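Ops channel
N.P.: pipeline sanity check, posting one input/output pair.
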Protein backbone atom coordinates (compact mmCIF):
# COMPACT_ATOMS: atom_id res chain seq x y z
CA UNK A 1 0.00 0.00 0.00
CA UNK A 2 1.31 3.44 -0.82
CA UNK A 3 1.60 5.99 1.96
CA UNK A 4 -0.66 9.01 2.38
CA UNK A 5 1.15 12.33 2.07
CA UNK A 6 0.53 15.72 3.67
CA UNK A 7 -0.29 18.55 1.27
CA UNK A 8 2.12 21.44 1.89
CA UNK A 9 0.13 24.21 0.25
CA UNK A 10 -3.20 25.40 1.67
CA UNK A 11 -4.69 26.47 -1.66
CA UNK A 12 -6.26 23.31 -3.09
CA UNK A 13 -6.60 24.96 -6.51
CA UNK A 14 -2.81 24.95 -6.91
CA UNK A 15 -0.90 21.82 -7.83
CA UNK A 16 -0.70 19.69 -4.69
CA UNK A 17 2.82 19.53 -3.33
CA UNK A 18 3.61 16.94 -0.67
CA UNK A 19 5.38 18.14 2.46
CA UNK A 20 8.12 15.55 1.91
CA UNK A 21 8.86 17.08 -1.51
CA UNK A 22 9.43 20.56 -0.09
CA UNK A 23 11.79 22.23 2.32
CA UNK A 24 9.93 22.42 5.66
CA UNK A 25 12.39 24.98 7.06
CA UNK A 26 11.12 27.79 4.85
CA UNK A 27 7.70 29.41 4.92
CA UNK A 28 6.90 28.85 1.24
CA UNK A 29 6.09 25.60 -0.51
CA UNK A 30 9.30 25.54 -2.56
CA UNK A 31 10.48 22.19 -3.90
CA UNK A 32 13.63 20.88 -2.29
CA UNK A 33 14.95 18.95 -5.27
CA UNK A 34 13.66 15.54 -4.23
CA UNK A 35 12.64 14.55 -7.74
CA UNK A 36 11.45 11.18 -6.48
CA UNK A 37 8.69 12.79 -4.42
CA UNK A 38 7.57 15.66 -6.64
CA UNK A 39 5.21 13.87 -9.01
CA UNK A 40 4.05 10.86 -7.02
CA UNK A 41 0.85 8.99 -7.61
CA UNK A 42 0.13 8.57 -3.89
CA UNK A 43 -2.74 10.45 -2.31
CA UNK A 44 -1.89 13.92 -0.99
CA UNK A 45 -4.34 15.24 1.62
CA UNK A 46 -4.74 18.30 3.83
CA UNK A 47 -3.88 18.50 7.53
CA UNK A 48 -7.39 17.64 8.78
CA UNK A 49 -7.43 14.38 6.82
CA UNK A 50 -3.76 13.60 7.41
CA UNK A 51 -4.04 13.67 11.19
CA UNK A 52 -6.94 11.18 11.02
CA UNK A 53 -5.01 8.68 8.87
CA UNK A 54 -3.65 5.69 10.83
CA UNK A 55 0.03 6.20 11.73
CA UNK A 56 1.10 3.16 9.71
CA UNK A 57 -0.34 4.69 6.53
CA UNK A 58 1.32 8.12 6.86
CA UNK A 59 4.49 9.09 5.00
CA UNK A 60 7.25 9.34 7.63
CA UNK A 61 8.92 12.21 5.78
CA UNK A 62 5.68 14.19 5.80
CA UNK A 63 5.26 13.58 9.54
CA UNK A 64 8.78 14.95 10.15
CA UNK A 65 8.06 17.98 7.95
CA UNK A 66 4.74 18.58 9.75
CA UNK A 67 6.53 18.81 13.09
CA UNK A 68 8.98 21.40 11.74
CA UNK A 69 6.16 23.41 10.18
CA UNK A 70 3.95 23.29 13.29
CA UNK A 71 6.82 24.34 15.57
CA UNK A 72 7.64 27.27 13.28
CA UNK A 73 4.00 28.37 13.38
CA UNK A 74 3.89 27.98 17.17
CA UNK A 75 7.10 29.99 17.59
CA UNK A 76 5.61 32.82 15.51
CA UNK A 77 2.65 32.88 17.92
CA UNK A 78 4.93 32.89 20.98
CA UNK A 79 4.04 29.34 21.98
CA UNK A 80 6.43 26.63 23.17
CA UNK A 81 7.58 23.91 20.75
CA UNK A 82 5.98 20.47 20.68
CA UNK A 83 7.64 17.06 20.26
CA UNK A 84 4.86 15.34 18.31
CA UNK A 85 3.21 16.84 15.24
CA UNK A 86 -0.16 15.47 16.35
CA UNK A 87 0.05 16.67 19.94
CA UNK A 88 -3.09 18.51 21.01
CA UNK A 89 -2.07 21.68 22.81
Amino acid sequence: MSKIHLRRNKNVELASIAACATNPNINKARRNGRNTYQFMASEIVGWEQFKNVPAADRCAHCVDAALVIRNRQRKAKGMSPITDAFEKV
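N.P.: looks fine end to end. Residues 67 and 85 are 4 Å apart (CA to CA).
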